[in-house]
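ok trying again, last paste got cut off:
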Amino acid sequence: MLSLIDVLCGWISLLPFECLQLRFMQEAFLGILLCAPLAAAAGIQVVNFRMSFFSDAIGHSAFAGVALGLLCSVSPGITMPLLALLIGLGIMFLKRRSTLSSDTVIGVLFSAVVALGLALASRNPGMARDMQMFLYGDILTISILELTTMMILSAVFYVFEIFAFNRLIALGINPQLAKTHRIHVAVYEYLHVALLSLVVIFCVKAVGVLLVTALLIVPAAAARNFTQSSGKMFWIAILIGLGSGITGLLLSAQDWAGTAAGASIVLCACAVFVLSLFYSMFVQKRKC
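nice, full thing came through this time. structure:
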């Protein structure tokens, strides 16, 4: 019996691109269809809440997660999301319970996870080679298990956004005002951070630790230049993320390009951001 992924890959093979006749490219394309819009949608709150440093910290926890997995003979696919969840929830806990600023809390845990990853890797020089693939990412090596996990995560995240989008906007504006409207601030903050941590860590596979923050921030920032409406921003960011993801992957597969897929995807998103800047400076300014 054909699985859902087999059916989707079959549909992808019908697209008029020679590179998509290869199975690994079909799976990579499906991974981008899941990952790019998911990251862009998550990026709306990252931009609104000024959490770009947070996504950096979670992304860099991939090093420590991989090192822990290899050291304990456990699949990094398990240790990475578990450590990302622990770091994300730990940041939120310390932010709520201490008098330190968010940047300070994130900076401390960011330093801790990077140092832990490097310390563990230094004990085994061969481990560095395994960790390097997470530095740059490689969507072309995505597995069926990772695709299935991303499908589940996407479904959970979008359902959460349907129910929590307006509440999260209220939290971003003023948490005290949100409390007066009977919004359970702590619950939504912890749920949002948990899902965001998982989104970031699974997107590392696509573009790597160095570029994962860009995958979230650039489409959302471009969307903000096109509109000031939060609802419109959400959909425009998804379109930008999806378009730049597909374009970047297809460009990277061309013989004349030969670039890394993750870098190509982010460059395409940055090109859209530049266009959005011109739109914001000239078109919107004339309307005002």
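cool. The mean pLDDT is 84. DSSP finds twelve helices and no strands in the chain.
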